[in-house]
Amino acid sequence: KLDIKGFKNWREEFKNAIFILDNGEIYNPTTPPLLEGAGGRTFTVSREVEKMSKSKYNVVNPDDICEQYGADTLRMYEMFLGPLEQAKPWNMAGITGVHSFLKKFWKLYHNSPSLGGGQGEDFYVSDNPASKDSLKTLHKTIKKVEEDIENFSFNTSVSTFMIAVNELTAQKCNAREVLEPLVILISPYAPHIAEELWKKLGHKESIATAAFPSFDPTFLVESTKAYPISFNGKMRFTLELPMDLSKEAIEKEVMANEKTIHYLEGRTPKKIIVVPGKIVNIVG
C-alpha cells in the first residue's frame, strides 16, 4: 500500500505531486478530504525493476553512502551484490552487514591481550608465530581469492573474507604472520582501510606496491581426522585421531577409549570395521 504522506515527504520534487490512476482519474493529495486517508480509498502499488535514471527519480547518490558508511563499504557492497555480468536490484538493507564486517576486520588489528583479549582502540599485532588453525584459514583464503580474482567472481571473495575474519576472531589471532598478508589480500576490495592498517603495521610505502601473498598448500593438509564412531551402524561419538595411523592403530585407539567401553557395556564386539580416513563401525 502506498503511504501518500511518506511518498510526498520522501523527495522535495514529490511534495506537490498528483497521481493519475488506472482509470484516468486525477488524484490530488493536497485537496481535502483526500489528504486524510485519500477519501477512504486505498492505493496499491507494485515494484518494478529498472535501471537507475535521473528521469525516473531512482538514482542513489554514492556521495551520501560514502558520507554515512565510507567508500570501502560502498565498494565492497557493490562487489558483494553478485556477479559483475549480471544486473542486480539495488537494496540498501545489506550495506549495513558489509559495514559491520569492515569494523570487525579493523578490530582484528586492535585486539590487545592487555584487555584480556577484548577489543580495544589501541593497535596491536604480535610477532609471535601463528597457530596452525590461523595459517590454515589464511592460506585457504589466499587460494579462494586468487581463483575468484581470475574469474572476476568478486562477490564470493567478499564472502570468503567474512568467513576468514570470523574464524580468525574466534581463534583470537593477532599474529603478524597472518594479519599482514590478510590486509594485502583485502586491499583491492577495501583500499582505504587496508592502506591505513598497512601504515600501522610499520610500512612506509603504499600497500599497492606490496607483493601478493603466495598460497602454500601444505597448510591445508589435514593432520588429524574426526572419525565418526558407530555401533551397529548408529553414530555415537567422534574421535580425533592422526591421519597417518594404521588400521590396527586406529582400532586400538578406539577400543581403548572410555566412550567405547561405555557403549559396549562389557560386550565383546563380533566385528570391527575400520576404513582409514573415513569411519569406524563396531558390530555386536
Q: Would you list the SSEs in sequence order as H and E?
A: HEEHHHHHHHEEHHEE
Oligomer: single chain
Strand count: 6
The structural domain count equals 3
Question: Spatial order of the strands in the main sheet?
Answer: 4-3-6-5
Number of helices: 10
**Helix content range of the residues, please?**
25-40%
Global shape: extended
> What's the main sheet like?
4 strands, mixed
Low-confidence stretches: 33-40
User: CATH superfamily membership of the largest domain, which one?
Assistant: Isoleucyl-tRNA Synthetase, Domain 1
CATH fold type of the largest domain: Isoleucyl-tRNA Synthetase, Domain 1
What would CATH call the class of the largest domain? Mainly Alpha
Termini separation: 66 Å
Structural class: alpha+beta
How are the elements arranged and paired?
Blueprint: H1 4-10, E1 19-20, E2 26-27, H2 62-69, H3 71-80, H4 95-107, H5 132-150, H6 154-170, H7 176-186, H8 191-200, E3 224-231, E4 234-242, H9 247-256, H10 258-264, E5 271-275, E6 279-283
Helix pairs in contact: 2-3, 3-4, 3-6, 5-6, 5-7, 7-8
